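INTERNAL AUDIT FORM
Audit reference: QA-55
Scope: verify that the stored structure record matches its stored sequence.
Auditor: D.O.
Record contents follow.
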Amino acid sequence: MRIDARVAELAADPAQTPEVRKRLRASVREVEWILESIERRDATLLRVASAALAHQPRFFDRGPAGLEPLTMTEIADELGMHVSTVSRAVAGKSVQTPFGVVPLRDLFPQPASEGARASRGEACDLVRELVAAEDPASPLSDEELVLALGRRGISVARRTVAKHREALGIPSSYRRRRHV
C-alpha cells in the first residue's frame, strides 16, 4: 500500500477547488495513518517474536521439546507492553524455524506443574520415553513415573503424570502389563 504521487500532487495543487483539495488531503492523511499503523504492528510483532525466541535458546537445539515455560506476561513486562498487546501480536501468526512452521503462541508453553522450569510438552515427552523403554512385564506405575521425572529435574504430582499419560493415549500400568 502506498500513496499515489499524482493524488498527493493534486492535494497540494492550488488550481484545484478547496473542496477537492480538502477531500484529497483527508484521503492522504488516512492512508498515512494506515501505513504508520501497519509499521507499528510489524515492529511490535518483531519485538515480541524476537524476545520470545531469545527466551527459548534450547528450542533451536532440541525443537519443540526444548521449549521452556514462558508466559506472555514475562515478555510484556520485559518489553513494557500490556499482556493483551503481546497476545494480539502472536494471535494467528507463525514463524519459520528449522523444525518447520511453528505458531508463535507455541513459544509460550505452560509449565509441567506449578513453579516448574520444564514445560508440559517436555514432561509429556519424558513420560512417553519412559513408558516406551519400560519392561512390558513390569510397567512403571504413575508413582514410579513421578520418581523418574523427579530424577530428571521435573517435579510433578502423580495426578499430573496420570493426566499427561491419558493425554498421550497411554493406558494405565495395569493395562500395559504383558504377561510372558
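Auditor finding: record pair retrieved intact. Residues 55 and 89 are 17 Å apart (CA to CA).
Action required: none
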